[in-house]
């Protein structure tokens, strides 16, 4: 049966918002980072980012894609990391998803998403921003590099200094994490998310 012609999108000819809609709907699922930072006045900021992933090991590194506000001012996460180059990536599971979504609300300076979403924090060990107690795992990170890309986006690369995981999820003997118990969520297009509950095994082929 002949294949239908592919629909193509030449991004250079598209409005950036329209290009973004197609881009975010194709690159899926994307893990969600609920990032905690500290403002200069000590306010704990928590913000979700789905332009996030692990990019290296030895040392372990993660990357965040942080958009600016519509008026081009940096978001609190960017501004806070510029002042204090440390942050915590809190991994979002299904149980945390609704509270994570509340952290996307625009708040006035000095207000904390932690309070709005009814979250608890616990001290980190290697960085000053705290982690979120309800997250099943968290990565304590120190900023490695910040890159300005495009018209409104920063790429923040962080070195992971410490990882904390809920103890019931860890097989200490094999250093394995229970993926079913971790129950992470991923972002699809628009307001749609997915879970990692549907899994399959596929070993790497041997030569």
CATH T-level fold name? Pnp Oxidase, Chain A
Instruction: Label the overall shape.
Output: globular
Helix-residue proportion: 10-25%
State the total count of DSSP E strands.
14
Largest sheet: 7 strands, antiparallel
CATH class, please? Mainly Beta
Order of helices and strands: HEEEEEHEHHEEEEEEHEE
Indicate the topology.
Elements: H1 16-26, E1 30-31, E2 33-38, E3 44-49, E4 52-56, E5 61-67, H2 76-83, E6 86-91, H3 97-102, H4 113-116, E7 121-122, E8 131-132, E9 137-149, E10 153-165, E11 170-171, E12 176-177, H5 179-182, E13 185-187, E14 193-195
Antiparallel strand pairs: 1-13, 2-3, 2-6, 4-5, 5-10, 6-9, 7-8, 9-10, 11-12, 13-14
Question: Mind explaining what this structure looks like?
Answer:
It is a single chain. This protein has helices at 16-26, 76-83, 97-102, 113-116, 179-182, and strands at 30-31, 33-38, 44-49, 52-56, 61-67, 86-91, 121-122, 131-132, 137-149, 153-165, 170-171, 176-177, 185-187, 193-195. The chain is an alpha+beta fold. It has one domain: Electron Transport, Fmn-binding Protein, Chain A (Pnp Oxidase, Chain A), CATH 2.30.110. The strands form four sheets. The chain has a seven-stranded antiparallel sheet with strand order 3-2-6-9-10-5-4, with helices on one face. A three-stranded antiparallel sheet has the order 1-13-14, with no helix packed on it. Strand 7 and strand 8 form a beta hairpin.
């Amino acid at each position: 049966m002949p294949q239908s012609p592919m629909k193509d999108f030449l991004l250079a000819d598209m409005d950036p918002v329209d290009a973004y809609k197609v881009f975010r709907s194709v690159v899926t699922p994307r893990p969600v980072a609920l990032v905690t930072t500290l403002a200069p006045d000590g306010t704990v900021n928590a913000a979700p980012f789905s332009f996030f992933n692990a990019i290296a090991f030895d040392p372990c590194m993660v990357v965040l894609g942080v958009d600016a506000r519509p008026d081009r001012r940096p978001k609190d996460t960017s501004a806070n990391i510029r002042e204090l180059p440390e942050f915590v990536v809190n991994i979002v599971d299904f149980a945390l998803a609704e509270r994570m979504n509340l952290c996307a609300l625009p708040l006035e300076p000095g207000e904390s998403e932690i309070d709005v979403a009814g979250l608890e924090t616990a001290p980190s060990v290697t960085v000053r921003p705290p982690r979120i107690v309800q997250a099943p795992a968290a990565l304590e990170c120190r900023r490695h590099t910040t890159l300005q890309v495009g018209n409104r986006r920063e790429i923040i690369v962080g070195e992971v200094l410490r990882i904390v995981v809920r103890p019931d999820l860890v097989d200490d003997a094999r250093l394995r994490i229970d993926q079913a118990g971790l129950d992470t969520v991923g972002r699809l297009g628009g307001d749609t998310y997915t879970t990692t509950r549907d899994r399959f095994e596929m070993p790497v082929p041997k030569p």
